[in-house]
Amino acid sequence: MKKVIILFFLSISILYAKPRLSVSILPLEYIIEKITVNKFYYISLFQENYITEYPSKKRVRKLSYSPVFLSMNLPKEKDYINDLKAISNIKVVDVTKGINRIDNNPYIWTDPINFRKIVLNVYDEIVKLDKAHKSYYEKNLTKLLRDIDEIFLAVKMQLNTMKTYNFYAFDEYWDYYANRYRLNIYKKKKQKLNAKQIYNTILFARENDIYRTIVDTHDSSDIISFFAQNSETEIIKNNIFKKNWQANIFIFTQKIAED
Q1: Family, per the entry (predicted)?
Q2: Cys-Cys with 59: which of 55, 88, 95, 183 at CB 3.0–4.6 Å?
């Protein structure tokens, strides 16, 4: 029993001995994990269901134990950042600095070039908190940046083989991806269509070679099913808030580029 207690407190002491970072979304956890491996403790405000999630006070309290909160400057962050500041001296750092936005769209990380800039901003904060391991982090950063560059080129090559560059989408989550790779996204409202709207949607799709509609994985299944049946398009689901940014962008690319 004594050994169990000792191991428990030892694990706790090791955990709190690590530098800590609190972050806005899971893709930031991905960056920290790639750069620091297991030398940092990190926790995200939002999980994969960002759209419908409302973090608890208990989770906000856990985030407040970190000296720094890495913000993606998302609309839903604001109230929680105010809560964090009210209960701690946490420093809020905007890791989207230096990135130009399209029509004030905050979902910038779907563009690999933007994600690369975010990585560099996150790295700067990591080194500030743990200068002793800077050379180790720099080595991992170099590898991560090389991987991102390879992803950028691989996605570009795969998309170059597509028969059409036109898509329907319900949301603005993929605008930066589309802008980077010169895809055309035509927005549709998340609602059931009347007869005239159905006719216009199908006609426009036929005239512009639109075969697929991009939706978030948390969108209403009823709306998705209705739109698929009345637009002559295939539904492609994607969640940009998943942690593994690399796998997510590869899978998404494969889906929209399939013949």
Answers
A1: Belongs to the bacterial solute-binding protein 9 family.
A2: 55
pTM here is: 0.90
Which residue is listed with tokens 């407040």?
64
CATH code at position 208: 3.40.50.1980
- Can you tell me the distance from the alpha carbon of 22 to that of 45, in angstroms, rounded to the nearest whole number? 7
Could you report the per-residue pLDDT of 11-44, keeping only the tens digit for each?
544 445 799 999 999 999 999 999 999 999 999 9
Q: Are 144 and 122 in contact (CB under 8 A)?
A: no
Token digits for 41? 């403790």
The residue type found at 247 is A
On whether the CB atoms of residues 187 and 214 are closer than 8 A, the answer is: no
Range of the domain at 184: 163-257
Decide if 178 contacts 160 (C-beta within 8 A): no
Rg (C-alpha) for the chain, rounded Å, is 21
Number of domains in the chain: 2
Distances from the Cα of 57 to the Cα of 24, 67, 84, 205, angstroms? 15, 18, 10, 46
